Automatic annotation (TrEMBL):
One BP term from GO: amino acid transport
Stored Gene3D superfamilies: 3.40.50.2300
PANTHER family linked: LEUCINE-SPECIFIC-BINDING PROTEIN (PTHR30483)
Membership in a protein family: Belongs to the leucine-binding protein family.
Protein name: ABC transporter substrate-binding protein
Residues in Leucine-binding protein domain copies: 7-353
Length: 406
């Protein structure tokens, strides 16, 4: 780096306190590691990066907007890069747009598409580093159809039951599943059945599920503890069906509660750490830097986005401070037009949505989309088998132990 070069402040809004503090800590680590690596290689065109963090607490709109303003007005950050903040519903886009800086987040919201396309000129700097929640729904239908059509699984019928939590995120996913199911030969026999969440009592809705005897049971709620109780209550009287529990079943707390009753469950994420050579090397660096108790599977999100931003800003000739709209438009153009292969796979931003394009849900070429990863719980040590999509999978689907051989 150039001696005496002034550092470039990069903001990050992370929930360091509140219900998502565990993930927030990992988001912070991912940024720290990425900045350390970039600076060790000369920084951004000779200038070191300096991370600045703002706690978003419970992630309400008020907290996230206040954090955004603090990063811009007090610290003069050239970009804001972070994991998710569930709650602001894009309200933080307004101070970002007013300042004309770059914002990369992982909120996984279809609403991002709506906001950016409503006024591309104003929201030119707003990017979502992962695909929207909608793709969870369509991606799952494609996944179970692939299992069926490839002969890995013989469903007992064409019926499926869809249960949703009451959060908009869960409802969007459930509706997306229902909207495309018939295109792939599935019949929605129940649902989307919305249950007020959070809850640990699923017996009533499970009674409705058993009454239609589906081959596929879906719960698009995402709290790990709630999903563990859903699975425990399903196992009180299991039926011959695949069980898919959205995202939360990846967490250790799911297995801590469900124990061996959780073995066989399918779970997925639209952004995750690959188990290839790049992913394994990253995990080793992450553990070496932050200890064995850290979680590279979470920290990989802002880590990848930080590297992608640094490359794009370098191509554009540098970053832009708040108010330097012309320069940040150049950075945004470079982000849209520079495909980055990182530890989460491919980051390729859609030209209109400015969100990562998913594979195989939208892109059919694995070199042009971020892989929607499907796992299956294999044992109580939280052994998650990566079973799809090809060519990223390292293992194959196994029939859940509650399904009777036919």
């Amino acid at each position: 780096m150039s001696e005496g070069a002034s550092p470039i402040p990069i903001g990050s809004m992370v929930p360091l306190t509140g219900p998502s503090a565990a993930d927030g800590a990992e988001f912070r680590k991912g940024i720290v590691l990425a900045v350390e690596e970039i600076n060790a290689r000369g920084g951004l065109l000779g200038r070191p990066l300096k991370p600045v963090f703002a706690d978003t607490g419970s992630q309400s709109a008020e907290e996230v907007v206040a954090a955004t303003r603090r990063l811009i007005e007090t610290h003069g950050v050239h970009a804001v890069i972070n994991g998710y903040n569930i709650g602001p519903q894009n309200s933080e886009y307004e101070p970002i747009a007013d300042a004309g800086i770059i914002y990369i987040h992982h909120n996984t919201l279809l609403q991002h598409h709506d906001t950016v396309t409503s006024d591309p000129e104003r929201y030119f700097g707003c990017f979502m580093g992962d695909p929207a929640d909608y793709w969870y729904g369509q991606g799952f239908i494609k996944f179970i159809s692939w299992l069926r059509d490839s002969g890995q699984w013989r469903p007992s019928s064409d019926r499926m039951a869809i249960v949703s939590g009451s959060k908009p995120y869960s409802i969007v996913i459930a509706n997306a599943m229902a909207s495309v199911a018939s295109q792939f030969g599935w019949r929605v026999a129940l649902g989307p059945r919305i249950v007020e969440t959070p809850t640990t009592d699923w017996r009533e809705v499970l009674g409705e599920v058993r009454a239609v005897d589906p081959a596929v049971v879906v719960n698009t709620h995402f709290y790990a503890g709630d999903l563990a109780h859903f699975q425990l209550q399903f196992m009180e009287k299991p039926i011959d069906a695949i069980v898919y529990l959205q995202y939360g079943a990846m967490h250790q707390s799911f297995i801590d509660i469900a124990q061996d009753k959780g073995v066989g469950v399918i779970v997925s994420t639209v952004i995750g750490l690959l188990r290839d050579e790049m992913g394994q090397r990253f995990a080793r660096r992450y553990f070496a830097r932050f200890g064995d108790g850290s979680t590279p599977q979470v920290g990989c999100q802002p880590y990848s986005a930080m590297h992608h931003y640094a490359i794009a800003a370098s191509i554009a000739g540098g970053s832009g401070a708040p108010g330097d709209v012309a320069q940040n438009r150049k950075v945004a153009h470079a982000l849209r037009n520079t495909i980055y292969r990182g530890v989460v796979g491919i980051i390729r931003y859609h030209a209109d949505w400015q969100a990562a394009v998913p594979y195989p849900d939208l892109a059919h070429d694995p070199s042009l989309g971020m892989p929607h990863l499907f796992y299956q719980v294999r044992d109580v040590r939280r052994d998650l088998a990566l079973i799809a999509p090809e060519p990223y999978n390292t293992e194959t689907f196994a029939s859940p132990p509650w399904i009777k051989p036919r």
